[in-house]
User: Which sequence fits this backbone?
């Protein structure tokens, strides 16, 4: 695990290193010019001929020559063919692009002239391509050609007049000194030039240098003398491409004295990635109606047949990634940069996104490279937390709930009258909070059938999600001790999140899901809430085949016909604690999940149930079917959840240890608050518990620190909890009884004056 | 009646509130705003509309930095 003090850029970037989003498509790797085929076809498909042409011209140098003579090796790597279709008719589209680009005249470049003189020997395509590219950068270029015109072997081609036009056009905006009928007999004639390119064509004069030729950077044994093209055995297309590349190498050589490749060169053996194209449909090639080639419309249609091969799976399927529109590599870099920022001098760019991730692992499950963006963002949360630069108020609520569940709410015991046990039930903190009977009935069942103790506490998921290593580690340590004291029992989980966390951090524990044990019992017939339903598997049950399978068995025993969701194990929205950090995203995600099927849901995570019930989506917990009537439940309020948790503890203590549990009482616990439904709903959405309001009112009433309106005895006060300030407007309506009129909070702090 | 329009008084000091400059801090940033305050003990009144509106916006901006 990464030590945060030593958080390095590679710690993030290594997590996304294999992401190939934005990498050229497989066709481009086959193209001698490494043309951005995908980008070119995109523009062509939109009829943006001028922009398409620019892409094409920059890569190929002589568009007419290439679009006539290239033998289209890209077609062998066209992913269209994976669907059984013909490859994209790329050359026909290239020709159409040239035809429909209104003004192809090259622009003169406003670059200051450079003093270096460069000689090119040979005016075939290799020499021309290099000369043109150097001249465009305003070097002083002289081309020596023994014949009386340019073109090399192209001069014998029937289409030479068109090629000749193309060359003329491309050279029309630059100054190049062509010396025709000028044969170079010895390189000493060129001593004045800063660099020389020998491109005398197949079988041409190599001045004795071919044997020393370096086929990577095209140098020779002689300083400043480069060589290439068909003289070195390249094809015509390769020669044009090489001239282009060589112009860059020569430029670098003139600046640094060294010939080397830039970054933009591909590994020749690498072919790019092939994608799955699950949703693509077969489409036949567009056939030109006229022998003259494609009409504009036909060309656009054929270009639109391109699949624009580029992986963006996670970026389009995860609502969060879709919303923030940042590619994985940028996320990784910003995650690191953000921990080094020093506001206000430099600001952070990834904070909101960091806390908007469900940490659900869905991206990892669909990425062809298995990349987990959530892992990058959790690393970022951990780094921020350890540096103390995390927006604490966004997650403080859940961390306080965890603290409650691991202290006042916790209860660990072997079964009645025993010190150790073979099994221990680990219901998780939220099950009892949401539905006390579920825990009590499940425990009663387990105790009857197995030697089962109880571990009532929180697994630490809130700390895990918040990136709070210290809280997480302390809690795990405590759990480990308790578990050891119980004789290292096999843990029975009702919550997939708990089980996942244990598998990751306490791999020494043996675990089994409650549902698996229940599914094995032939005596059990769960109640049937509806005849047809869809199982909504929580994100943390991904890969937990036993759990997923057992729940289906139980649902089938209830006589439910199960529909499977198209996309399984998606986070309901609760994961990663994003609700306060990004309320509108939370809303979008929960809505999408609720809509994933028309059918009612069978769930086995209480958080999923709460999300759906709050959205009025019918969702029944499998335990309510096994032990109850199969009826859906109301979501308890935040205060009721705490009360429920204590009730569970109380009942279990009485049952197992025979002791009565009286939680430590706060003086404000006895206040009665009257809160109407609408306000209650608003409070729940904002995670304001009536418990906080009681405390605030009690403080105000005992200290007198409040505002009041004497016309109707209305009162208003606030209370600061670690990072949140709660406000409550209320009026006394009876002894210890208050009507609440409004409740709200803010995260900024009023600066107390000294 | 909206909480903002009420004639709030500070219970302890028995004073009507007056607008004063109030300092706030959040995530290491400090800024000020004029708000009804008890002239004596300086207890500040932040109305709900402000907390849910402008303040929430500022909070979000500062959290993003
Ligand atoms: S479908 Fe388009 S992007 Fe994909 S390989 Fe073929 S031409 Fe290239
Ligand atoms: S972990 Fe989940 S929410 Fe986060 S980026 Fe991946 S798919 Fe999206
Ligand atoms: S799924 Fe996402 S992370 Fe994976 S390769 Fe595609 S774009 Fe990159």
Assistant:
């Amino acid at each position: 695990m990464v030590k945060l003090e030593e958080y390095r850029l590679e710690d993030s970037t290594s997590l996304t290193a294999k992401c190939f989003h934005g990498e050229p498509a497989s066709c481009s790797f086959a193209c001698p010019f490494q043309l951005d085929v995908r980008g070119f076809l995109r523009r062509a498909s939109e009829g943006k001929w001028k922009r398409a042409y620019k892409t094409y011209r920059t890569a190929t140098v002589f568009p007419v020559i290439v679009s006539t003579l290239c033998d289209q090796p890209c077609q062998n790597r066209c992913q269209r063919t994976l669907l059984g279709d013909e490859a994209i008719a790329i050359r026909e589209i290239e020709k159409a692009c040239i035809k429909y680009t209104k003004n192809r005249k090259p622009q003169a470049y406003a670059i200051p002239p450079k003093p270096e003189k460069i000689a090119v020997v040979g005016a075939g395509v290799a020499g021309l391509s290099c000369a043109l590219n150097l001249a465009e950068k305003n070097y002083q270029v002289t081309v020596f050609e023994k014949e009386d015109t340019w073109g090399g072997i192209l001069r014998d081609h029937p289409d030479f007049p068109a090629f000749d036009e193309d060359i003329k056009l491309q050279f029309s905006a630059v100054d190049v000194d062509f010396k025709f009928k000028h044969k170079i007999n010895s390189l000493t004639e060129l001593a004045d030039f800063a660099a020389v390119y020998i491109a005398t064509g197949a079988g041409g004069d190599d001045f004795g240098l071919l044997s020393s030729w370096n086929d990577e950077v095209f140098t020779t044994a002689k300083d400043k003398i480069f060589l290439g093209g068909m003289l070195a055995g390249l094809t015509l297309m390769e020669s044009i491409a090489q001239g282009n590349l060589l112009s860059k190498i020569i430029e670098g050589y003139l600046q640094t004295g060294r010939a080397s490749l830039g970054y933009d060169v591909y590994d020749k053996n690498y072919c790019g990635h092939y994608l799955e194209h699950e949703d693509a449909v077969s489409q036949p090639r567009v056939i030109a109606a006229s022998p003259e080639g494609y009409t504009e419309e036909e060309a656009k249609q054929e270009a639109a047949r391109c699949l624009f091969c580029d992986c963006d799976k996670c970026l389009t399927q995860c609502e969060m990634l879709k919303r923030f529109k940042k590619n994985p590599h940028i996320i990784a870099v910003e995650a690191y940069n953000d921990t080094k920022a020093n506001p206000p001098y430099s600001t952070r760019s990834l904070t909101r996104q960091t806390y908007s991730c469900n940490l659900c692992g869905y991206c990892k499950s669909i990425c062809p490279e298995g990349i987990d963006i959530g892992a990058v963002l959790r690393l970022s949360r951990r780094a921020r937390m350890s540096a103390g630069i995390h927006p604490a108020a966004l997650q403080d609520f859940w961390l306080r709930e965890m603290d409650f569940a691991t202290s006042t709410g916790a209860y660990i015991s072997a079964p009645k009258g025993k010190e150790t046990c073979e099994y221990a039930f680990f219901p998780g903190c939220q099950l009892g909070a949401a539905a006390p009977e579920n825990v009590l009935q499940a425990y009663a069942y387990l105790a009857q059938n197995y030697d089962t103790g109880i571990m009532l506490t929180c697994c630490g998921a809130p700390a895990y999600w918040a990136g709070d290593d210290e809280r997480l580690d302390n809690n795990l340590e405590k759990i480990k001790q308790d578990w050891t004291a119980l004789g290292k029992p096999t843990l029975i989980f009702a919550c997939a999140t708990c089980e996942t966390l244990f598998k990751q951090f306490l791999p020494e524990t043996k675990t089994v899901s409650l549902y698996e044990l229940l599914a094995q019992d032939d005596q059990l017939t769960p109640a049937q809430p509806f005849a047809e339903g869809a199982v909504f598997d929580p994100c943390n049950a991904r890969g937990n085949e036993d759990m997923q399978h057992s729940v289906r068995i139980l649902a089938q025993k209830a006589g439910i016909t199960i529909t499977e969701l198209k996309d399984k194990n998606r986070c309901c929205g609760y994961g990663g604690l994003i609700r306060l950090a990004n309320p509108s995203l939370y809303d979008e995600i929960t809505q999408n999940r609720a809509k994933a099927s028309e059918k009612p849901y069978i769930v086995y995570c209480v958080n999923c149930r709460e999300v759906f019930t709050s959205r009025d989506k019918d969702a029944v917990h499998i335990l309510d079917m096994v032990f109850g009537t199969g009826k859906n439940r109301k979501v308890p309020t935040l205060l009721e959840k705490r009360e429920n948790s204590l009730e569970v503890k109380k009942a279990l203590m009485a049952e197992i240890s025979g002791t009565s549990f009286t939680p430590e009482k706060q003086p404000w616990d006895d206040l009665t608050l009257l809160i109407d439904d609408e306000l209650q709903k608003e409070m729940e959405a904002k995670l304001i518990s009536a418990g906080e309001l009681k405390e605030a009112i009690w403080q105000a009433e005992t200290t007198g620190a409040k505002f009041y309106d004497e016309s109707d005895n209305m009162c208003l006060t606030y209370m600061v909890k670690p990072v949140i300030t709660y406000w409550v407007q209320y009026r006394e309506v009876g002894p210890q009884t208050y009507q609440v009129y409004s409740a709200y909070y803010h995260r900024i702090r009023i600066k107390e004056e000294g | 009646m909206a909480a903002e329009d009420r004639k709030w008084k500070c219970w302890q000091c028995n004073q009507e509130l007056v607008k004063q400059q109030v300092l706030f801090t959040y995530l290491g940033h400090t800024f000020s705003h004029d708000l009804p305050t008890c002239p004596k003990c300086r207890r500040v009144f932040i109305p709900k509309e402000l907390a849910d509106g402008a303040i929430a916006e500022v909070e979000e901006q500062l959290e993003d930095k």
About this structure: Chain A has a mean pLDDT of 95. Chain A has 30 helices and 20 strands. Chain A touches chain B at residues 343-344, 347-348, 351-352, 389, 391, 393-394, 704-711, 714-716, 718, 727, 729, 741-742, 744-751, 753 (CB under 8 Å). The pocket of iron/sulfur cluster (ligand 3) is lined by residues A 19-21, 311-315, 328, 367-369, 371 (CB under 6 Å).
